[in-house]
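REVIEWER CHECKLIST
Item 1: Sequence provided? yes
Item 2: Single chain? yes
Item 3: Sequence as submitted:
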Amino acid sequence: MSNRTIGFIGGGRVARIFLEGWNRANMLPSNIVVSDCSVEALGKLKIRWPAVQTTADSRAAAGQDVVFLAVHPPAVAEVAAAIKGGIKPGALVVSLAPKFTIAKLSELLGGFARLARVIPNAPSVIGAGFNPVAFAPVLTVAEKAELSALLAPLGESPEVAEAKLEAYAVLTAMGPTYLWFQLQALREVAAGFGLSDAEITPALKRMVCGGARTLLESGLTPAEVMDLIPVKPLAEMEAQVAEMYRSRLPALHQKIKP
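Item 4: Structure as written out by the authors:
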């Protein structure tokens, strides 16, 4: 798919994550058009990636071979109405938003059926993403493989059932936000103890990765894993934090489901 032209409708965070991930992997496609109504957003993109074409005309981005709908759910219907007559018959349109099913997107695009949906994950910016994808039934195995190859520099992109994409949105797309502020606070505290960035970085990385693997791969029960460390400085807050997960995230999942 290296010779296929790429269009992004929306030049915000998700577009920047994809562009940076491809760039860091030295696999930035050579023909990219990004449209956005924000002059400021397009200006930032142009500074970072001068070779990327930027425009306020969404139909220009929609006229490429692979078109990413990189807009928030509230804008999807309006964007679809604006571009539905400008998509190439053989193009592939990839939605990066939850809530709108392939069937609904096809309806909004006037019956266009060559569609896929991806739930993007911010660690894609360093090639460590987890970006589950669902494909429309009309796409062939070869066409699916082409999109998967385009996503490969960003991390993993497993094919999943479309009905599970919103669950992945809560788990993987938003998941880093549940942890980053805590890890940054721990990083700052460790610096206050006299550790340098060069000392903190590998220790924190190994602790987080090892902790996750121990919970998921050790074969121990969750209770047995949590009993491996006798001193728990934040133990009195655990129930409150767990309750926040159990109350807020199911409500969020219901909100973004189709």
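Item 5: Key structural point noted by reviewer: DSSP finds eleven helices and nine strands in the chain.
Item 6: Recommendation: ____
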